[in-house]
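Researcher: We're teaching a course module on how sequence relates to structure. For the next exercise, students receive a sequence and then see the predicted structure as tokens, so they can try to spot secondary structure elements on their own. Here is the exercise chain.
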Amino acid sequence: MMVDLNKDVKYIKGVGPNRVKLLNKLNIFTLKDLITYYPRNYENRGIAKNIIECIDGEETLICGIACGRISEVRLKGKTMQKLLIRDETGTATITWFNQSYLKNMFEVGKEYKFYGKISNMFGKVSMTSPVFDKQGESKNTGKIIPIYPLTYNLSQNTIRKIIQNGIEEVKGNLTEVLPKYILKEFNLQEINEATLNIHFPKEFKDFELAKNRFVFEELLSVQLALLELKNGYQNEEIGIQFSKEAKMSDIINKLPFKLTNAQRRVLEEIDKDMESTKPMNRLLQGDVGSGKTVISMCAAYKSVKCGYQAAIMAPTAILATQHLENYRKIFDGLGIKCELLISAMTKKKKTELLQRLEKGDIDILIGTHALLQENVIFKKLGLVVTDEQHRFGVKQRTTIVEKGQNPDVLVMTATPIPRTLALILYGDLDISIIDELPPNRKKIDTFAVPKTMEERVNNFIKKQIDEGRQAYIVCPLVEENEESDLKSVEKLYEKSKTETFSEYKVEYIHGKMKAKDKDIIMEKFKKKEIDILISTTVIEVGVDVPNSNIMVIEDAQRFGLAQLHQLRGRVGRGEYKSYCILKYEGKSETIRKRMKVMCDTNDGFIISEKDLELRGAGDFFGTMQHGIPEFKIANLFEDMQTLKIVQNLAMKIISDDPKLEKEENKLLRGLIEDKFVKRIEI
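Model: And here is the predicted structure for the students to work with:
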């Protein structure tokens, strides 16, 4: 029997009009979304402890005989229900609040099971608001219970029941998506068995086997899709073979500084690519300030010297303008024409520019998303550079590439990504890494301080400004949100302007502002007309302001480490000693570890590895826009071994069957289309 996995979740038993809205908040829209909404954890409610063995703070199962009826006490408009139970080792008090209906639920002398958090103070054992069953029943206890990520107003019991109903709907009729030979070779559970075991395992080994299967499936689908994409690039028509006579060394020798060994190594890789007949598709990874721009200049120079044009695409107008300034410093003296295309330009100026571009009078065009417009026509496009790749979708990259005849592509990012994650996210690209900073880059001193030290931090900011410097203050949110007590930009701005920093020039900037308004603010900051700029992460990818030497990040515990590092890179760009102050809240061990990593190192790659370890890959960039589906169950740090196995398998399969046309691989074709290809067009 065929199962309609696209069936709207509102038609699943137990889902009404209110619950469907809550499920949609969890990105559950269909039956398939429901049964692939995996637990984040499990509670073993099957093994009971003696009361005397109970440890304070642990969640456990205890069994006991009801010593008497429930007593009820009224407290300030509330009621408290208490039940005394005993086993052969001791007694425990079970407490509930405002649950009078329980009074007749327990029979004296009968045995019951309770699961909840233990309080053990000086040998007095108690438990508050546990789940319970009669001895012999197993509705809430006596088994492994899945724990799901939730949204407000949706309980664990409710989502469990709905998922159970969803699994009942498929009734073991799910179609297998992995070929038999893969299931057999890697000892993977069949899809129906695995689906049941991932949600409701009888033993922990059942869950482990099910998890292994779905992790394997998820990683394999992504790896196959990326390899197929890469293979497609390489088997395309012949690309541009740039001449060996156009030497990058000609421009390198004219630079006012020496390149690092890492930069030279990367340029050799790019030079080799450009002189090959295959179109270059290379990812250039480099930490903040590692000198990626000069790499793109050298590549653009080679393209122009061979009679081709280059397109440089940046995510913001202000960053594009900064690139133009840097390019012109080098290229103006060489007779190479660089121009800027952004949305804010007048119609007349834009029309004139596009005419020159089509005629070939412009060698290098630098711009924003405006480069993607249909009326942007190059005479002879040879090289495409996208800066801050994670801000652009795969589709956008493809759109600009199609403006030429198989031009070379250089993709740049300042977000340090662990190599393993880079292989996942950009498996369709070759990877180059600049793992060395120029010698003139100053170390940024980083301090993590609790919010209680706010006044001390503010005094430090004032001291720096009085010495002629400027400061960034970064907040996570734009406006007050009822689900969060975080400071918003607007609220902090008002307080800073009228109270904390009233004697200084304070402005704010955030992502909801118009691009033009943001550019005006950033330009004023660059010209030293603003002392303190309060911002969201919109400044993460931004203009260089050499005079700004202090970065304060509010609620630092809310950011990923990679993002904190990216933000920190906004300072330390000038001659002055620079500081980053992380203000945090919370005392958990994870928060402490994360803050320590930021204080201990300025190496973006070490930080990204730690970020992956501590947070997983789920939301590595804050907002993922690369078109890769988010991992539902795989964790790239924990599942590294599986990833290596899967990468080898995927390479073997694609090498043998590049288009997955063989009978035994037809299921894999369907798997890719379902999980990946449909989404890569984002």
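Model: If you want an answer key for the exercise: Residues 479-486, 618-628, 678-682 have pLDDT under 50 and may be disordered. The longest helix spans residues 204-234.
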